[in-house]
Every structure is written in structure tokens, then in C-alpha cells.
Design brief:
Layout lengths: L12 E4 L1 H18 L10 E4 L5 E4 L2 H7 L8 H13 L4 H20 L4 H22 L1 E2 L5 H17 L7 H13 L10 E7 L7 E3 L1 E5 L13 E3 L2 E5 L6 H4 L9 H24 L4 E4 L5 H9 L3 E3 L4 H11 L3 E2 L11 E2 L2 E7 L2 E7 L7 E7 L2 H23 L2 E4 L3 H15 L5 H12 L1 H10 L3 H13 L5 E4 L4 E4 L6 E3 H19 L3 E4 L22
Parallel strand pairs: 5-16, 9-10, 9-12, 10-11
Antiparallel strand pairs: 1-21, 2-3, 4-17, 6-16, 7-15, 8-14, 9-13, 14-15, 17-20, 18-19
Helix pairs in contact: 1-4, 2-3, 3-4, 3-17, 4-14, 4-17, 5-13, 5-14, 5-17, 6-7, 6-12, 7-12, 13-14, 15-16
Amino acid sequence: MQPQIILLKEGTDSSQGKPQLISNINACAAVVDAIRTTLGPRGMDKLIVDNRGKACISNDGATIMKQLDIVHPAAKTLVDIAKSQDAEVGDGTTTVVLLTGELLQQCKNLIEEGVHPHAVVRAFRKATGLAVDKINECAVKINKQDPAELRSILEKCAGTSLNSKLIHQQKDFFAKMVVDAVMSLDDLMPLDMIGIKKVTGGALEDSQLVDGVAFKKTFSYAGFEMQPKRYEKPKIALLNIELELKAERDNAEIRVDSVEEYQKIVDTEWNILYEKLDLIHKSGAKVVLSKLPIGDVATQYFADRDMFCAGRVVEEDLKRTMKACGGAIMTTAHDLNESVLGTCELFEEKQIGAERFNLFKGCPQARTCTIVLRGGAEQFLEETERSLHDAIMIVRRALKHDAVVAGGGAIELEVSRHLREYSRSIASKEQLFLAAYAKALEVVPRQLCDNAGFDSTTILNKLRARHAEGGKWFGVDVMSEDIADNFIACVWEPALVKINALTAASEAACLILSVDETIKSPRSSHDAPQGPMPGRGRGRPM
């Protein structure tokens, strides 16, 4: 009898072969089912409560996937592709997870019948190449020369992205705002130059776009009321200095023998503070912003000299002000001169809802803007911010990669038809795998119908017939429970979103298909529960 070879540490869990592959596919299917219903204009929202009891309401695929604490190693792949889609394109996160799940589901039967996973993987890679070529062939180029046409196309792309969001009722209002925001940026379109600030209260339509930097008024001391609240072309000093009395004596331990010596220390402390304040005043700055607190003495001093100050400014806002208005963030008051001071056309402090906001308009250095959102509950505003982030990303992508396709399942069905026709020209068993890929693509229009409560079989049959006749832009019309030419209906998406979703979904599916064994190491001794394990006697070996 052959001796048993012990290869792995005792307690290691390993499972392999076909059952392991099927188990991974089932785990991914369970994750997909969790977000399946969020797709499209009639998608439902998910309410996720974390371990601290904070509720988050969202229908953004990436947000939901991040909030779900998934422990299954294969299913975590889906979280990664949702994150990568969100980072790369910004929208289409639900689509990418749904496609991956459906591709795996189509393979399941093939794997169970004994097909080798690598034969499927090879065919899927080929199908993805064909699909991307087809999308590029169908995509319609944007004419960037005509500003009016470009703007209307971008607004339609933003509107399509907002269709499935909580704020779809106000999509026209927000689509214009998003396009204005992106168009006001430089050619590189840095995302961090669009600030989004949330103010609870008021209606959604009270939201506004500020052409420049805006942030909430910071904590302020007495004397603040006497400062002017509006300047034209002011010099702006950006500091990282604490202008408070207590700052100096915290830096050292001092022992004194007499009252006179203590008095000297107090006087010196005042002198140090006043020296800093005089230097700031002499530099010609009218607006003083600091990351650290500005105390009541300093506030009063600036008020007497017609200067405005704000302490404890959030670092992100301070940096955005620096990029937009110029200047530099200084850690000393001694080197303040023209070259390190910023400027803008207009500075003012305004009341927005229950909050006061500092607004810097007409910034010369970098073009920036801030969206101030109004609305009801905090969760609602957070979801609105996520929706606008998706729309902003979509508009940036459409501007950078100037090609659009019709949404609403139209492009998926067109690619599916193309792959089916191509598969019929192949004699080998690869034909089956390409057909499976083509069938998986139909999940998008089918899910759109299911989420809206339509009969998906009828509508898909109509769509297949129309696409076979050459109606390549026909997709689901959610408004009238029918099919429509979505290019004419202005349901548009950047071609890049679809290409990225398809390639990411295909890669993830191939990755999961190529795993046939999972080895879980046992928990290390300091993780293991102390004492006898439940259900085992003390005397028996573990």
C-alpha cells in the first residue's frame, strides 16, 4: 500500500475540479442577483446598512458592490471589475457585473457537459475582439467643430446616464449643469477641479453651478461680523499658520521666578502674534485663508483693517483655491509677497440655505467650478452626488473619445446579431461558444424589460426581428412598453463605456473560468478560537 503524502498544512481546505468551477459560477450568480434589479430607468434602489448602522440608498453598481462585504474569493472578482469600470469610465458598473454573470451562466451548461474551460476562454476572447470591432464600426462620431451640436450631444449623453438615477425627473436641469461644469474645465479636464458641495434643505432645482471655488464658511470668532463680505480683485493669502495666542507657549516648557518675567513672556507672545499679523497686512492681502485656526485677536485685527479671514479651511478646498487663484500655501508669514498671493475677479460670502458660503469667482490660473446641491434628506443628497459623478465622467469620456452609440440595449443586440451570424460561418464546436456569448449579450435588453415589468420575451422577439431587417439602433423603449429607434430617441452613450464594459466582463469571466482549484490556508494560531472547539470532547484528537 502506498504511504499517504501530506503536502499541505493540517486544516487546509482545498477543493478542485469541475464542482469547484460550478461552485464559483454559482457564487458569482448570487452577487449578480443582488444588483440585477438596479439596471435601467426603471431600476430599483438598494438600501444597505453598514455595521455602524449608517444607511446608504443607491442604485449605482460600484457603490453597492463596495458596500456588500463579499468574502467569496471568486465573487470578489466582480467587485474589482465594478471598481475598475467606475474608475475608468464612471458609468456602466451594473452592466459590467450583469454581463459577467450572464457569460458565466451561459458557460455553466457547457462545463457541466464536459467542455474544457480553455476552449470556452479562447472563443470568448475571440468574440470580445469581434464585438469591439463591431461597436467601433457602428459608433457615430461627434462633430466637435460645431459647438451647438457638440453641446446637445453631451447633454443627451448626460441625460441617458441620469435616466436610471434617483434624480431622473430633473435630468434636463442637471444634464445642462453637468455639461456646463465639464465645459468650464481645461483641456485635461481634471476631475478634482469640479467640487460638489451638499446643503440640506430647499428643492433640487435650487442647486446651482458656481463658476469658481465655493466652500462652506468655516468656524469663526468674534469680530467676524465687522469684516467686509465682498471684494473685487482681492489679493488672497493662503496660509498654514496658527494665528492664535496659545500657539507659542505650547511649544516649550518655561519656568519663571517672578511676575515680571511672566509678564515679559506674555508680552512677547502678543508681539510675536502682532508681528505675524502686520506682515500679512503689509503684503497687501485682502482675503486670508488658513488651514489652521485664526483666533479672536487676529479676527478683530483683520476686521479693523478691512480684511477678510477664514481659519480651519479644509485642505482639499485650500488646494483647489490655490490651483484656481494662483499663489502658494505658506507656512511662514515672513516671505509674503506678490508672487505667493493669489487673486480672483470677485470674492463674496453668500447665504445658501442655512449655510454661508465663501465664493471665489473668475479665477485666472485654472478653470474650476463648484456644484452646490440642494435637497432633502442626507442620503438623498449623497445619491444625487453619486449620480452627478457618473454623469460628469460620461461627459468627460464623450469629449475625449468622440464616438457615441445608442443605449437601451440597442448596441448589445446589434453585436449579438453580428456574432450569431459570424458563428454560423464556423464549422467547429467554437460555433457553440460564440452563440453562447451572443446570447449572454441579450441580458441587458431583457433585464431592462424585466425591471420595467414588461414581457421581455415579446419585446426581445420584436427587437431580434427589427435588427435582422437592419434596424441597428432599435432598443427597448421603457416609456411606451415597446421598441424604438434609440438613436432618434436620443438615448446615447459613449462607445467607450460599452467597449470597456464588454472587455472587462469578458476578462473577468475568463479569469473565473480558468480557476479550477481553491486552497484556503487554515487560520493561524492567534486567530483560532481558544479552548476546546464546540462539539468536540477534550480527550479526542482535533
